Amino acid sequence: MVLDVTKIKSYIISLQDAKDRRNSMTKLMEDNGVEDWSFFDAVDVRDKLPYWLGVGMSHREVLVKAKYPCIVYEDDIAPTSWFRSEIKIPKTGIVYLGNSVWGMRSGQSEVNGVTFESKDDEYCRVKHMLSAHAIYYPNRVLAMKFSDGIIKHMFETLRPFDELYAKMQTIYETYCLNQPLFYQRCDRNETYTNFEVKK
Predict the structure, then answer these.
(1) Cβ(117)–Cβ(125) below 8 Å
(2) How far is Cα 199 from Cα 112, in angstroms, rounded to an integer?
(3) Quick one: how many helices (H) and strands (E) in the chain?
(4) Amino acid 173: pLDDT
(5) Would you state the pLDDT for residue 139?
(6) Which of 21, 65, 123, 177 counts the highest number of beta carbons within 10 A?
(7) C-alpha distances in angstroms, 195 versus 45, 79, 80?
(8) Which candidate, 32, 28, 56, places its Cα nearest to that of 42?
(9) Per-10-residue mean pLDDT for the chain, 199 residues long?
(10) Is residue 57 within 8 Å of 31, Cβ to Cβ?
């Protein structure tokens, strides 16, 4: 099916006082013609808990309250050179609009720990990928299958929630774009997230 990402309800997870990031994301949404988007106030754990606990809880919160279908963004993204508003994707399955070479194929976080299985010129099935900066959720049922265990996972393992998602990708068909729409805009992760999946 063809999906127009500018017409899907979109949520941007962002700390309430993150003015620079919010200004950047407002410009990104407006410049690319996204019609129905809003900020979702991130769970603020600063000076209390590790930041990744706040990230995981924020993803869980937004998915519980979201209207579907929807896209959930983090507030540190930028469009890749491959950005386009319309993408071809499967009718079912979560679709990552951003990619990462970080994965859990060996059971621990590592570079090149992701499995990409080519399905189409536009997209591939993905397993073990650590990423959450731009995800399309087609319906609430599938979103809950991924997100119901976030809090349990983080507090039992003391590990970030995207490690749970990496495992869920091996159970439920999950896809990513060969040419991602977004990358993570930071010095640490840009080179790991701004790349084309080669068939």
Answers:
(1) yes
(2) 15
(3) 6, 14
(4) 94
(5) 97
(6) 177
(7) 32, 12, 9
(8) 56
(9) 97 98 98 97 97 97 98 97 96 96 96 94 96 97 96 96 97 97 88 90
(10) no
